[in-house]
Amino acid sequence: MIISHLKVNHLVNPLGYDLAHPTISYVVSDAKGKHQASARVEVSLSSGFDKVIYDSGEKKDILSTGFELPLSLSPQTRYYWRVTVTDDALDRCVSETQWFETAKTVTGPDTGWEAEWITPSAPKDLQAVLYRDLEIDKPVAKARAYMTGLGLYEFSLNGEKQGEEYLLPGFCDYDSWIQYQTYELSLTEGTNRFELMLGDGWYKGWYGLIQHEENYGDRLAAIAEIHVWYKDGTKDVFTTDASWKARRSP
């Protein structure tokens, strides 16, 4: 038996999503039997499953096409999960461990940002890069960046583009909501340079076949929070503010 295509809300190991109703799914193949007889789902705060927070036990009503986890999720938390499947021929298999990590905030009243929107002090038709150097003076346990831009943005850390996506933040209904992205960072002790390259995009650039600019706004802008957890148990949050600098984009 093989358990594959393990997903949460149709995503493989989603990072930084507001998962109000996390629903797992999976596909079983090469089984001896003809159908699933029972399944067991486990969720843990550790990859070794020594901090299990949910165990369904063996159940006959767990659907491989969608099983909602009855969990109250915390923000900025990584959860590990696996499923054990038994078929009608008593063939049994335990899946590989998967994970999902919640967003900066979860659905509820506390959804504010510590960061400020910043915009380059330059002519509005100038394409710009916003940047800042951060000093890290002790070993880092983990770090995350939460950010978005108006209109398009590309994020680089120490000269390397972060993430595999382009034309971020993607489609947004700017009058109602703006998507933001989460990045898992690899920070080194010493100086780390954060750069946000901005572009007009659909926000203030040409839109459609007819030349029509500044559909939603007339200034480039960005907002970002960098959360750093240290191995000594302390934490720092660095945000976009007036200390960031700007230069002409390449």
Number of strands: 18
Please bin the fraction of helical residues.
under 10%
What is the overall pLDDT average?
Answer: 94
Order of helices and strands: EEEEEEEEEEEEEEEHEEE
Number of DSSP helical runs: 1
In whole angstroms, how far apart are the ends?
A: 52 Å
Inertia-based shape? elongated
Structural class: mainly beta
Q: Radius of gyration from the CA trace?
A: 22 Å
Task: Outline the biggest β-sheet.
Answer: 6 strands, mixed
- Unreliable stretches (pLDDT < 50, length at least 5) are none
**How big a fraction of the residues is strand?**
35-45%
Overview of this protein structure:
It is a single chain. This protein has 250 residues and is mainly β. The chain contains one helix and 18 strands. The mean pLDDT is 94.
Task: Give the SSE map.
Layout: E1 2-8, E2 15-17, E3 23-29, E4 36-44, E5 52-55, E6 67-68, E7 78-87, E8 92-94, E9 98-102, E10 128-136, E11 140-150, E12 152-157, E13 160-161, E14 181-184, E15 190-199, H1 201-204, E16 221-230, E17 235-239, E18 245-248
Parallel strand pairs: 2-9
Antiparallel strand pairs: 1-3, 3-6, 4-5, 4-7, 7-8, 7-9, 10-15, 10-18, 11-14, 11-16, 12-13, 12-15, 16-17
Question: Could you list some keywords that capture this structure?
Answer:
5-stranded antiparallel sheet, elongated, single chain, 250 residues, 6-stranded mixed sheet, 1 helix
